[in-house]
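New to this. Explain the following:
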Amino acid sequence: MPQITVDYSASLDEDFDRRGFALALHPLVVETVGARLAACKTRTRRTEDTVVGDGAADDALVHVGIDLLAGRSDEAKARLTEAVLALVPEFVKPAEGRALHVSAEVHDLDPSYRSR
């Protein structure tokens, strides 16, 4: 815990510093919702087919999902979501004509969750 998943458009392969983002995100999670740094785990998943709107533009997207053990307030989760939205663009190189769509959400893990 926290389990973090980052889905990103394949077109961002060369322009998204995924490792740098994860290394910046982990302390942010610790500070915002009180997790342990050593417990933060991030995996990134390249998505081959992403379409925004009518698909006419060269848009790209990054979606960050953060799963936490229950007990954090809705306000703390909202602060974390807003912080993630601000952090992502710092790790994506701008490209002419490309719009970047960033989204984030925080969920409580199911009580059955276990880790070693």
In short: The chain has two helices and four strands. The radius of gyration is 15 Å.
